[in-house]
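As a warm-up, study this chain.
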Amino acid sequence: MNKPHLAYILPNLFTATSAFFGVLSVLASINGLYEKALVYIILALICDGLDGRVARLTNTTSKFGVEFDSLADLVAFGVAPAVLFYMNIGYKYGKIGVVITAFFVIFGAIRLARFNVTTGTYEPSVFIGLPIPTAAVVSSVWTFSYLSYDFLQDYAVLFLVAQGILSLLMVSNIRYPSFKKIPINKALMLKIFILLLIFFSFLYVFPLQSTLIIVSAYVLYGILRAIYTLAISNKKIKKS
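Now compare it with the structure written out below.
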């Protein structure tokens, strides 16, 4: 039995909306509306999370949908955060700022292409390299934090370096946890509910600070895990 045409349109509509929010974010950054630019990227992230889930629920996944999603992601999570970064930090460093800004978009495109061709070849509980939507949110939150706290204005070069590191993390082999395939039993559901309740309470009271801590901890976790794994491997090699 053929699927109704609307079922195929719905996930692609979420993808298109994600790209649209990406364009709005770029325009907001150009016009100096940096808080709006950040909000649009977060809204794009929500739409990006919904398109794949809707496609799987309605069994309407398609090659077109995969390609369309990647192109939309490049706009919303590559170009939009890169423009936000450049308009606030990158422009201060001339050609170096341009290169770092461009690398974020280019490496993001490589990350998307690699994800498309390697999906299903590794365990579903991890991402190989930092996902571009995560990198986009981290970059945007860091940039907005730079704008929000006066004492950070003297450390713009650190944000430039951090942006470069985010770009490299996207094309690295560092593993980051994926929460899509975590088995949740009844005993675990209550703990997750309590943790989410605490998290959203902090998010309500301290929105920027809470988001900054969470996204930074996620990025740092992958790096520290890779260093630990490498250290353990070297220790085993020396013993053998």
